[in-house]
Amino acid sequence: MTPRSTDANGHGTGGEPDPRAELAEARAAEERDDAHGSTSPDKDAENAAGPRPGASIPEIELDLARTREEFAATLDAIEDKLSVPAHARRLKASVSRRLDRDPKPVVAAAAAGTIGVVALVAGIVKTIRR
């Protein structure tokens, strides 16, 4: 494998940007933003790690409870996205709604799927008998 040649700006001559140059540019932009006093979302007081300076114990407990609720909601959303039964329920509900509105496309899709499965099984049986 040969290394890509780069132009004076650190970009590949094939039109593809050099990842090292992009990283250096991003770091330079971050340093400029930090020098001008702008804050990124992960550096503001709301998202900072640890309790806020001067926060009372009830405020800290409230923040902990809120964080636990957000974390639980995030975990529930991830679990729902990865859950096969949940996807099956949503698909069934979607098909039922479509069938109620206009049954022709659903019946056509079911017929095409059935024909596909029959053709697949016939092909497998034919291959095995050879």
What does this entry look like structurally?
By secondary structure, this protein is an all-alpha fold. 68% of the residues lie in helices and 0% in strands. It is built from four helices and no strands. The protein has helices at 19-35, 57-82, 84-101, 103-129. α3 (84-101) crosses α4 (103-129). The two termini are 45 Å apart. Mean pLDDT is 79; it is low at 1-5.
Q: Flag low-confidence runs.
A: 1-5
The total beta strand count reads: 0
Q: Classify the beta-strand content into a percent band.
A: under 5%
Backbone CA Rg = 29 Å
What is the number of helical segments per DSSP (H or I, 4+ residues)? 4
Order of helical and strand elements: HHHH
Average pLDDT taken over every residue: 79
Any idea what the shape is? Answer: elongated
Summarize the main sheet.
none
Residues in helix, %: 55-70%
Derived from helix and strand composition plus strand pairing, the structural class reads: mainly alpha
Q: Report how far apart the termini are.
A: 45 Å
Q: Topology, pairings included?
A:
Elements: H1 19-35, H2 57-82, H3 84-101, H4 103-129
